[in-house]
Design goal:
alpha+beta, 1 helix, binds zinc ion
Length: 58
């Protein structure tokens, strides 16, 4: 998973961002922000170190 990049049209929501993090997706490229539920920066930056303690341990 270290080299996997996910391309999507809309920014993943909070649940998806968390799931992507837990399975180890390192990079997500999205076409547009999700103003209501965006989990990769628009609402909450789930990918940032601030939220690291909520991630699953591997
Ligand atoms: Zn989602």
């Amino acid at each position: 998973m270290l080299t996997t990049t996910l391309y999507v049209t809309i920014e993943p929501c909070l649940m998806c961002a968390s799931a992507l993090r837990q399975i180890g997706i390192q990079r997500v490229v999205f076409g547009a922000g999700n103003e209501r539920f965006g989990g990769n920066g628009t609402v909450l930056p789930i990918h940032s170190r601030k939220y690291q303690r909520y991630a699953a341990k591997h």
